Automatic annotation (TrEMBL):
Top-level taxonomic group: Eukaryota
Membrane-protein topology: Multi-pass membrane protein
CDD domains membership: MFS_MCT_SLC16 (cd17352)
Chief site of localization: membrane
Chain segments annotated as coiled-coil in the UniProt record: none
Ranges for region Disordered: 1-48
Protein name as it appears in the record: Major facilitator superfamily domain-containing protein
Recorded GO CC terms: membrane
Source lineage: Eukaryota, Fungi, Dikarya, Ascomycota, Pezizomycotina
Amino acid sequence: MKEKDSTSASDSDRTDGEISVPHGQTIVDFESKHDPETDPASNADPPPDVVPDGGLTAWLQVLGSTAILVNTWGLINTFGVFQAYYETTLLSSHPPSSISWIGSTQAALLFLVGVFAGPLYDAGYFRHLLITGMFLIVFGQFMTSLCTSYWQILLAQGFCMGSGMGMTFLPSAAILSQYFARHRALALGIASAGSPVAGTVFPIIFSKLEKSLGFGWATRVIAFILLAMSVIPVAFMKTRVPPHKGKKSLVDKSLFKDGPYLSFTAGGFFAFLTLYVPFFYITLYGTSQASVTDSFAPYLVTLLNAGSILGRIIPNALADRFGCLNLMLVCMSGSAILVFGWLGVRDLAGSVVFVLLYGAFSGGVVSLTPSVVVELSPDLSRVGTRMGFGFIVSGTAVLIGTPIAGAVLGGESANARWVPTILYAACGLLVATLLYSTARFLQYRKKGGW
């Protein structure tokens, strides 16, 4: 009887204190098990086979990842005000679809460079990717402030900054899986909140300073902010687990036999093909179709990103309990319904409600994507490579998605074809919802649980 009680206690302790994770690692609440005042060894990092799931070093990684999201997705979410400025002032002789290539190139490279950044991260080159990427982002923003022609802006804001974003974004998401297991989705959600915060602040900075100081200095002020933000990840971020020994490949061949992962990746193509159409065109739609004044129109992008702040945190907090893929389905279906509803927006009030709600649901889609990839990966040693493969699919979609919308819309705002453009975006999100549902069903059959 005594032996049985001992065994039960042991099982209970193991259940409360540890959770098994892939590759034989365990998750331990490192803060609660070690008191710095009574145990000097508690200041040391936990061994590689123990996931700390908390502690100063772990949360500094979240802080660094937040700064990277400011410098990557924060800028991409700001491109709507640049698009409007280019169309009306600096590049007014170019059609909207051509200008969209600048923003879509930037966003696409964030994904496409991931096909190389993922394996390099797995191989132990995190710091090299981080420092090089941060330099390219800041350098590209400064160069954009000096640009006067289309090809110059495309090179600086599109290719240079996009390449830097691709080197930093995937590693910043993947590294959190080394420090968090039980609260991984929440950590990713908190980190991703840096994107909408930047997307809320940067459009205001640009709109205010462009009128008083001009395009050059408005862009340079943002560049100085990016430079300051870059110091945080460079100073604090580091990998915890040594690189996996063995031959590295750009492609994990096992993923081609993984039905849930393939369905999710296919859904990601249609999701990111159309997810950013409202981000790029809501300002123009507001002034031409919804009676929004020119002075207030840039704030629609700000409000869209403000709504996205809650969309980044709340779904990820719930995902740790209810499942990342389940919450992804909620956010994706909500985004699709809202874009269909965009067809009925005709005034300022409707525009404000739409951007706040769409920001919340679309923010959940973006922030949950890395968590779902981790959830669908068989072990942590292949997270970077699988993210890289998924990113090249999504990046291709981002590259062509908004220019297609611009081509459908047409060149002149007076004759713009808004209904086909909105339906294009809504149908893309609907197809993504169906494919994500397929991935969830296949995962249920594979795991036997929701």
